[in-house]
Structure formats: structure tokens, C-alpha cells
């Protein structure tokens, strides 16, 4: 059987809603063989992040080497990288294997406010990783950090996308999950020339833990299958919409999105799950 493969380079979320766990579940649901390179272990649940245990940069390099020298991958997604040394090590390893379908989710801060990226690592993210990105997927606060711009209006979002494209990312998706006063969740894709809008109804729920991780890993899975960036983002948007609509009420804080909703709905002809 010929399978497509995707690799996530990210941190572990013990609660299973974000990080490596969200990525692997998404890969599986989208029919892609998932592999993981761990950069940090977090003690985390629906209430937030209780502790972060970063791994040394050699650990990431060695794991990537093990995968690259034997199995290979059709696409890569990066998530929580925590510090500059890990970012540089990951960028070197990705370049050395010549992997091109790279989705960079520039994870900075978890929902409860815990930092998942050191402030001084932002320069490395811009200089070392963005030039390798086929797609970068910032939320608005992340785009503000990366560009140094205050982003409020649609024109500012488009200008930020142009700046990130100039920094080397071939496609930019400006995610609209944080525009809570807007009725729709609007993500804007920029390919260096044109802007494309992906719009869905905003779902009123507190269970949005892991939305960014799930969205970016869905893009990586679709790229691994050979789809265009536009089609990959389009499927990822449908995947995350279903995952939030059918989100899971567990724990006492922000519950996780539902990774099996998209596939099960397709089996049920589009109906929401009971
Ligand atoms: N309440 C919501 N309703 C519908 N879509 C949402 C909602 N919140 C986030 N999204 C979508 O989830 C994806 C991740 O966005 P976002 O939450 O901004 O990322 P992050 O988790 O990195 O902050 C985007 O496609 C965004 O439009
Ligand atoms: C280990 C780990 N990686 C990334 C995140 C951030 O996930 P995200 O999808 O942005 O979701 P929220 O944290 O905003 O719920 C994380 N929390 N943990």
C-alpha cells in the first residue's frame, strides 16, 4: 500500500487537545501516516499549561535524522519550538533533507497565557524558518509579533501578509480566530500576488483548545496528499469548522476540538454528530 506521510515537529500537550497529539490525530483522520519529532513536553490540560520541559536542540536534530534517513516525509509541519537553538537546529535539518512542503505554525502563547516561545527566539523564526515555509499560519497576535505592526483592519492584515511573504514564506494564511467581535471567522490566504478569503460562521463555544495546531496540521496533511495550497487551506478550513462545531466538553476549562467530526460527518452525508 502506498501511503502519504506527514511529520509534525512540535511540543507534547498531555491533555491531548493541541501540540503533537492534535497533529497526529488530524493526520490520521485525513488519511496520512503521521510521524512526530518532540521539541518539548508540556504538562497541560483544558485549564492551561502547568509546566514546560524543553528538550535540547540535538534531540530534535537526531529525531529528524532518524526519520529523514529511513522513512522520509511528504510534508512537514512545525508547531511549538520554544527557543532559538531548537528553531535553528530544525531549520538546518529540514534544509539538509530538502523538504519543501513545510507548514510553519508560529506558536507563541497558549490560550491561558503561557509562553511557548521565548521572546528572543522570534528573530530566529523570521530569519531561519520563514524562508523555508511553503505556508505560514499566524494568528493576529503572532502576526503582530513577527511584523512589528499593530493589526486591526483588513488592510493591515493584508499588509502584514505582504511583509511575511517578503520575509520568505511563499504563502501566508492570516487566521481570523481571534477577531471575536466579528460574526464570521475569516482566514486570508496570500500567495505573493493574490488574496483569497476563507469564511465560515463564528461558533460560540469556549472549546477551542488546539484550533491553530489542528488547522495547520490539516494543511500539511492535504499538501502531503499532493493538493495545491489553495485546496489544502480550503479542506483545513472545513476540517476545523466541523471540529469546533462538534467540540468536546471535557475538563473544566477550554475543551478540545473534535478531530473525528469532519470524517464522520462525511460518512453521515454532512450531518453534525449527536
Ligand atoms: N469560534 C470560531 N469559530 C469558527 N472558526 C474558528 C473559531 N475560532 C477559530 N476558528 C478557526 O480556527 C482556525 C485557527 O485559528 P485561530 O484560533 O486564530 O488560531 P490559534 O489557535 O493559533 O490562535 C482558523 O481557521 C480560524 O478561522
Ligand atoms: C504543546 C502545545 N503546542 C501548541 C499549543 C498552542 O495550540 P493552539 O492550537 O494555538 O491552541 P491554544 O493553546 O490557543 O488552545 C499548545 N497549547 N500546546
UniProtKB/TrEMBL annotation:
The keyword Magnesium does not apply. Pathway: Cofactor biosynthesis; thiamine diphosphate biosynthesis; 4-amino-2-methyl-5-diphosphomethylpyrimidine from 5-amino-1-(5-phospho-D-ribosyl)imidazole: step 2/3; Cofactor biosynthesis; thiamine diphosphate biosynthesis; 4-amino-2-methyl-5-diphosphomethylpyrimidine from 5-amino-1-(5-phospho-D-ribosyl)imidazole: step 3/3. Keywords: ATP-binding, Kinase, Nucleotide-binding, Thiamine biosynthesis, Transferase. It comes from the Bacteria. Transmembrane segments: none annotated. Gene3D superfamilies: 3.40.1190.20. GO terms for cellular component: cytosol. Its EC number is 2.7.1.49, 2.7.4.7. It is an enzyme of class 2 (transferase). It catalyses: 4-amino-5-hydroxymethyl-2-methylpyrimidine + ATP = 4-amino-2-methyl-5-(phosphooxymethyl)pyrimidine + ADP + H(+); 4-amino-2-methyl-5-(phosphooxymethyl)pyrimidine + ATP = 4-amino-2-methyl-5-(diphosphooxymethyl)pyrimidine + ADP. SUPFAM superfamilies: Ribokinase-like (SSF53613). The keyword Mitochondrion does not apply. InterPro entries: HMP/HMP-P_kinase_dom, PM/HMP-P_kinase-1, Ribokinase-like. Residues 13-258 form the Pyridoxamine kinase/Phosphomethylpyrimidine kinase domain. GO terms for biological process: thiamine biosynthetic process. It holds the Pfam family Phos_pyr_kin. GO terms for molecular function: ATP binding; hydroxymethylpyrimidine kinase activity; phosphomethylpyrimidine kinase activity. Belongs to the ThiD family. This is Hydroxymethylpyrimidine/phosphomethylpyrimidine kinase. It comes from Neobacillus notoginsengisoli. The gene is thiD.
Amino acid at each position: 500500500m502506498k501511503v502519504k506521510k506527514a511529520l509534525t515537529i512540535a511540543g507534547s500537550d498531555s491533555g491531548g487537545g493541541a501540540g503533537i497529539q492534535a497533529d497526529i490525530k488530524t493526520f490520521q483522520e485525513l488519511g496520512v501516516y503521521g510521524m512526530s519529532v518532540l521539541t518539548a513536553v508540556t504538562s497541560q490540560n483544558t485549564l492551561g499549561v502547568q509546566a514546560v520541559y524543553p528538550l535540547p536542540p540535538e534531540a530534535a536534530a537526531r529525531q529528524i535524522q532518524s526519520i529523514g534517513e529511513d522513512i522520509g516525509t511528504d510534508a512537514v509541519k512545525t508547531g511549538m519550538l520554544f527557543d532559538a537553538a531548537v528553531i535553528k537546529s530544525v531549520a538546518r535539518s529540514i534544509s539538509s533533507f530538502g523538504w519543501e512542503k513545510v507548514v510553519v505554525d508560529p506558536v507563541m502563547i497558549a490560550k491561558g497565557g503561557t509562553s511557548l516561545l521565548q521572546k528572543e527566539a522570534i528573530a530566529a523564526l523570521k530569519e531561519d524558518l520563514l524562508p523555508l515555509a511553503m505556508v505560514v499560519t499566524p494568528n493576529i497576535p503572532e502576526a503582530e509579533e513577527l511584523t512589528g505592526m499593530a493589526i486591526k483592519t483588513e488592510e493591515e492584515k493584508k499588509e502584514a501578509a505582504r511583509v511575511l511573504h517578503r520575509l520568505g514564506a511563499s504563502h501566508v494564511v492570516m487566521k481570523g480566530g481571534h477577531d471575536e467581535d466579528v460574526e464570521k471567522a475569516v482566514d486570508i490566504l496570500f500567495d505573493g500576488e493574490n488574496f483569497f478569503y476563507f469564511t465560515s460562521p463564528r461558533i460560540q463555544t469556549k472549546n477551542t483548545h488546539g484550533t491553530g495546531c489542528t488547522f495547520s496540521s490539516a494543511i500539511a496533511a492535504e499538501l502531503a496528499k499532493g493538493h495545491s495550497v489553495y485546496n489544502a487551506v480550503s479542506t483545513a478550513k472545513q476540517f476545523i469548522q466541523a471540529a469546533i462545531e462538534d467540540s468536546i466538553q471535557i475538563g473544566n476549562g477550554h475543551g478540545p476540538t473534535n478531530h473525528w467530526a469532519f470524517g464522520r460527518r462525511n460518512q453521515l452525508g454532512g450531518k453534525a454528530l449527536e
